[in-house]
Design a protein that fits this description.
The structure holds 2 protein chains of 2 kinds. By secondary structure, chain A is an alpha/beta fold. Chain A contains 8 helices and 7 strands; from the N terminus they run E-H-E-H-E-H-E-H-E-H-E-H-H-H-E. Classes of the chains: A alpha/beta, B mainly beta. At the A-B interface, helix 7 of A face strand 2, strand 8 and strand 9 of B. Bound molecules: zinc ion (ZN).
């Protein structure tokens, strides 16, 4: 894949850390190719449950802690971050058309050649599904001639049966250290999330974290039907 | 936050009794419980900025895990599994229960002003 053929990539996910767990390798590849990347981050993840171990955040300070972590990761990945200001866990209850218009106003401005978001219905967290759906709708509303390509990321356990093989598979192995650095910038989330993966019920042995994180997979959205 | 000392928390309750106060009450096992383990279920609930008045507030429990009951005119507010507490810079009483990885399982917070 030639990363240079893109002129600007916009990543749309709801939580600080989605970009690192889900796409840090992909983002790194684009940045190495000199392509600007803008992250539209839906919420501050202020209802997250990881408070650090040992504890260093609480329900009321978590939004500030995670905002700071997001700013740190912007430096690590060398990307621009725009915070959309929604509240964690509430995106599915917001008006989807309203969010789509909100996103479209940014896309109209940035004019990206590629948008990356979650695959609606196959992204596990209700916020992922809701913001993914709004992002797809936002891109759909753009003029076909001026519409960016959209890569949708599915993470549900049933994704292969339901959607088939992903169109884009990026192996992050050569740049895995960078991905780990991005994930660790989310100090409050990283440790517990890594532990969670290591303890997952379908855990398949050593280094489950590395196995789960190695490939970043996307489906190219088809707007024709 | 620090581990709960029952006596200190009990003393702090007294300043909120018989006043209009705002409550944040929450319990969660996260949005990924089922994703990582097919045998478990995603469960959670929260209410933020419920305006209430309670006439009695008590903490009970042992071995680091505590329960709190707030008695209102017509009912109760209850939380179980609390492990940590603090009074923050804005005078709010924050209590939460965490598992050994620092994951929040339950929270009960009391403030004289609405939460942000
Ligand atoms: Zn997320």
């Amino acid at each position: 894949m030639d990363y240079k053929e893109h002129k600007h990539v916009v990543v749309i996910y709801p939580h600080p850390d989605d970009e690192s767990f889900g796409a840090a390798g992909t983002i790194t590849r684009f940045r190495e190719a000199g392509v600007p990347v803008t992250y539209l981050c839906g919420t501050l993840g202020e209802m997250g449950r990881n408070m650090g171990s040992p504890l260093f955040a609480n329900r009321e300070t978590l939004s500030e802690v995670r905002k700071k972590e997001l700013m740190d990761v912007a430096k690590v990945l060398d990307i621009e971050v725009i915070m959309l200001g929604y509240r964690d866990k509430t995106l599915e209850f917001e008006d989807r058309d309203g969010i789509a218009e909100h996103l479209r106003s940014y896309l109209a401005n940035i004019q990206p050649s590629l948008v990356i978001t979650h695959y609606p219905g196959y992204a596990v967290h209700p916020d992922h599904n809701a913001l993914g759906a709004a992002a797809v709708e936002a891109v759909r509303r753009m003029e076909p001639g001026n519409r960016p390509i959209l890569w949708a990321q599915a993470i549900s356990n049933n994704r292969i049966e339901a959607l088939g093989k992903p169109d884009i598979v990026i192996d992050t192995e050569p740049i895995f250290d960078k991905k780990v650095q991005a994930i660790q910038a989310h100090r409050s989330q990283a440790e517990a999330m890594i532990k969670r993966m290591e303890e997952a019920s379908d855990h398949s042995g050593e280094d489950e974290f590395r196995k789960r994180m190695r490939y970043e997979r996307f489906y190219i959205w088809n707007f024709d039907n | 936050m620090k581990p709960i000392q029952m006596k200190d928390v009990q003393k702090t309750f007294e300043s909120f009794v018989n006043k209009d106060v705002y409550i944040h009450l929450e319990t969660t096992n996260g949005a990924y419980a089922r994703h990582f383990n097919q045998k478990s279920y995603n469960v959670g609930a929260y209410i933020r900025n419920a305006k209430v008045t309670f006439s009695r507030a008590r903490i009970a429990g042992e071995d680091g895990f505590y329960r709190v009951g707030l008695k209102m005119d017509l009912g109760w507010i209850y939380a179980e599994g609390l492990t940590h507490w603090e009074v923050d810079g804005q005078g709010r009483l924050l209590m939460a229960g965490h598992d050994d990885a620092g994951r929040l399982m339950v929270a009960l917070e009391i403030s004289e002003k609405p939460f942000k």
